[in-house]
Amino acid sequence: MIIIKTEQEIQKMWEAGKLLASVHREIAQMIEPGISTYEIDQFVEEYLERHGATAEQKGYMGYEYATCASINDEICHGFPRKKPLEDGDIVGIDMVVNLDGWLADSAWTYGVGNISEEAQKLLDVTKESLYLGIEQAVIGNRIGDISHAIQSYVEPKGFSVVRNFVGHGIGKDIHEDPQVPHFGRPGRGPRLMEGMVLTIEPMINIGAYGCTIDANGWTARTIDGKLSAQYEHTLAITEKGPIILTDQDSLE
Ligand code: MF3
Ligand code: CO
């Protein structure tokens, strides 16, 4: 069942989203060779607490960290760890902020030091695919229009779209209906309505789209060891078009 949000509820999710966006801004300043994803995770947990919010992922289905930190061939759900990041790594940091019971979810992939041209292209294409998906998030379109916009942009660039993980509705729970695949056919799936709040979160691989799951039961990584990137926003569908609740560019 898709839970429609009121304007006031969207406003609350927007507050959570603005806080989340400000965390990503801070992380962008911190990322450099030598820092660990464990340190970033500690920072995020403390920063949220200082701002009256909590890290919703911690304790979610037994997950133990405030953030997911997915390095290089890790697609998603990487565990923060004490091993320092190295020059040339790419690292996706994903988190869900809970502010007064309302959630926002956003992931961002960061280059560490100097990254290869190929890695930079992967980041650029992945981020652009997210925004092309968001453009389709208008009343009257269908979920498949978002999916198709992403897949039809990414694949001609020679990259692949991960199938095993999808975007989702979000509100007071991390994962609500509907699912938002990042591949699929236009004109298919649930129709988009005013007051829906969704995540769009393409995971894009340089090689094949398949994945394996680590022995920890969580971490997904590419089957061929090639790089994977992810960008994710939470957005509301409104009469005026999509509002990106986790937008970093609109922060003062
Ligand atoms: N933030 C994730 C998403 O985009 C959810 C992570 S699941 C967790 O859907 F268990 F790691 F929290
Ligand atoms: Co997320």
Topology:
Blueprint: H1 7-30, H2 37-50, E1 54-55, E2 67-71, E3 74-76, E4 90-99, E5 102-111, H3 117-135, H4 143-154, E6 160-161, E7 167-169, E8 176-180, E9 197-200, E10 203-205, E11 211-213, E12 220-222, E13 228-230, E14 233-238, E15 241-244
Antiparallel strand pairs: 1-4, 2-4, 3-12, 4-5, 6-10, 7-8, 9-14, 10-13, 11-12, 14-15
Helix pairs in contact: 1-2, 3-4
The protein binds 2-amino-4-trifluoromethylsulfanyl-butyric acid and cobalt (II) ion.
2-amino-4-trifluoromethylsulfanyl-butyric acid (MF3) is lined by residues 57, 60-61, 63, 68, 77, 94, 96, 105, 174, 199, 201, 232.
Structure characterization notes:
The protein is built from four helices and 15 strands. The chain has a single domain (7-251), classed as Creatinase/methionine aminopeptidase superfamily (Creatine Amidinohydrolase, Alpha-Beta Complex). The chain is globular, with a radius of gyration of 17 Å. It has helices spanning 7-30, 37-50, 117-135, 143-154, and strands at 54-55, 67-71, 74-76, 90-99, 102-111, 160-161, 167-169, 176-180, 197-200, 203-205, 211-213, 220-222, 228-230, 233-238, 241-244. With 252 residues, it is an alpha+beta fold. Strand 7 and strand 8 form a beta hairpin. The strands form five sheets. Strands 1, 2, 4 and 5 form a four-stranded antiparallel β-sheet that branches. The protein has a three-stranded antiparallel β-sheet with strand order 3-12-11, with no helix packed on it. A three-stranded antiparallel β-sheet has the order 6-10-13, covered by helices on one side. The longest helix is centred in the N-terminal third of the chain and has 24 residues, at 7-30. The model has no long low-confidence stretch (mean pLDDT 98). Bound molecules: 2-amino-4-trifluoromethylsulfanyl-butyric acid (MF3) and cobalt (II) ion. Cobalt (II) ion (CO) is lined by residues 94, 105, 107, 201, 232. Cobalt (II) ion binds at residues 94, 105, 107, 201, 232.
